[in-house]
Amino acid sequence: MRFLLNIGNTRAAVAKGTPGGDDFVVDYLPTQEIAEGWNPPSNGEWHATAACVVPAIRKRLVERVPQRMHFITPEDYPDIDCSAYDTARLGADRLANIAAAHSLSPDRSVLVLDCGTALNSVCVAADGRFLGGVILPGRETALKSLARNTAQLPEFAVTAPHEFNPFGLTSEEGIRNGVDIGILGAAEKIIRATKARPEMSNCRVWFAGGDAPFFVDYLDKSLGAELAPVPLTLYGVSLACAR
Q1: Gap between the Cα atoms of 123 and 69, Å rounded
Q2: Of 114, 156, 119, which is closest to residue 137 (Cα–Cα)?
Q3: Using CA atoms, how far apart are residues 187 and 65, in angstroms rounded to an integer?
Q4: Mean pLDDT for all residues in the chain
Q5: 14 vs 27: CA distance, rounded Å
Q6: Which among 35-39, 48-52, 139-143 has the top mean pLDDT?
Q7: Exposed end of the chain (fewer CB within 10 Å): N or C?
Q8: pTM greater than 0.90 (yes/no)
Q9: Which residues contact 34 (CB under 8 A, 6 or more apart)?
Q10: Collapsing DSSP states into helix, strand and coil, what is residue 226?
């Protein structure tokens, strides 16, 4: 039995089967609970391959299930070229997204925007070169940051708006619309700036992560934004597992 793990800053996905396949099953746990809350088989043959961006959680998992866990590295993906980037500081989720994008689109460049605690992008050329990307706060992180760093602004949960109103008449309306308008503007700018580069001029634009539908629904359709065809990070992890 094989498990695929995507351990982010906020939540962790634990999957079995092939991402996008009929046998694919995924469960979610808060990241801080994954080391003790995940209950793999107590015996039998099994292994787990993981993308993890939280070093403390990685250490606890290695201690709990030694010799059962493999954490992905660039060496797991010989078909991609990350030589232009300091891979010692490349997040495992971004690495998995690079590998997944090139595997699913081997003849065309891809811009992946992964929408979670952070909104990050990876630009993958058609020949498998990782060209770089950007990282900025995600919607929920932006909302929490305002509440934590101001004296009177309250904290709100992320919701999907019905319209964007620049004339908010309450603090809640102002915060929600400000964050949503701002992050959509940032995503549009990222896409347009990426497509302005020769290697990415004809790129696919895939959104992944828990907040991906928000961006695909509300960005201008001319930008070509689409939901990734499979759970992208877990698919990238599965490529390493297959090796």
Answers
A1: 28
A2: 119
A3: 39
A4: 92
A5: 5
A6: 48-52
A7: N
A8: yes
A9: 5, 7, 12, 14, 57, 61
A10: strand
Q: Please list, in sequence order, all residues whose beta carbon lies within 8 angstroms of the beta carbon of residue 75, skipping any fewer than 6 positions away.
A: none
Q: What is the 3-state secondary structure (H, E, C) of 86-142?
A: CHHHCCHHHHHHHHHHHHHCCCCCEEEEEECCEEEEEEECCCCEEEECCEEECHHHH
Q: Which helix (H) or strand (E) holds 3?
A: strand 2-7
What's the rounded Cα separation, in Å, for the pair 53 and 90?
Answer: 9
Please give the structure tokens belonging to residue 212: 């991906």
Residue closest to 120 by CA, chosen among 209, 20, 17, 54: 209
93 in catalytic set: yes
Given a contact cutoff of 8 angstroms between Cβ atoms, the answer to whether 239 and 128 are in contact is no
Buried b (16+ CB within 10 A) or exposed e, 10-19: ebbbbbebbb
Could you tell me how many residues make up the chain? Answer: 243
What the block records as the tokens of 178 is 């400000």
Can you tell me which residue has the tokens 């932006």?
142
The pLDDT tens digits of the residues spanning 193-219 come to 999 999 999 999 999 999 999 999 999
Residue the block writes with tokens 């460049």: 109
